[in-house]
Write a structure and sequence with these properties.
single chain, 131 residues, alpha+beta, Alpha-Beta Plaits, 2 domains, five-stranded mixed β-sheet, 5 strands, 44% helix
């Protein structure tokens, strides 16, 4: 029985070593790329175009520092919100706004508002004319 266990452990170790050699460590790089892509935050330049105006947008914060905006966006993404960072120039200064927008044209804002209120978060709902 002892020999069988040792034999199985030896085979398992050989499989791990051979798979690492065969993959040449690329498997880990691919995993790291996927993790990095999940943790990245989308930064968009604000444009004034009729086709980019949503029925609603929720603004969670506005910052002069991009890293602060990214940090807040990541916090809300970890809580299940789909956030993005929008940048816009105001009087020559770039402002980075952390926002939530609808996933589809018919997505309702009320469930998201309720989740934010339950979490006691500060936010502002912006209609079409305020975006």
């Amino acid at each position: 029985m002892k020999e069988r266990i040792i034999g199985l452990l030896t085979i398992a170790a050989a499989i791990v070593v051979l798979s690492f050699i065969y993959l040449k460590g690329d498997g880990l790089a691919e995993i790291e790329q996927r993790i990095e892509a999940r943790q990245s935050v989308t930064v968009e330049e604000a444009l004034i175009q009729a086709d980019l105006i949503y029925p609603w947008i929720i603004q969670l914060g506005a910052f002069q520092d991009l890293e602060d905006a990214k940090s807040l966006a990541k916090q809300f993404e970890r809580k299940g919100f789909k956030t993005y960072v929008s940048s816009k120039d105001f009087s020559g200064k770039k402002i980075f706004r952390v926002r939530i927008r609808p996933s589809s044209e018919d997505e309702e804002v009320d469930p998201i508002i309720k989740r934010l209120e339950r979490g006691d978060y500060e936010f502002q709902v912006l209609g079409k004319g305020q975006q």
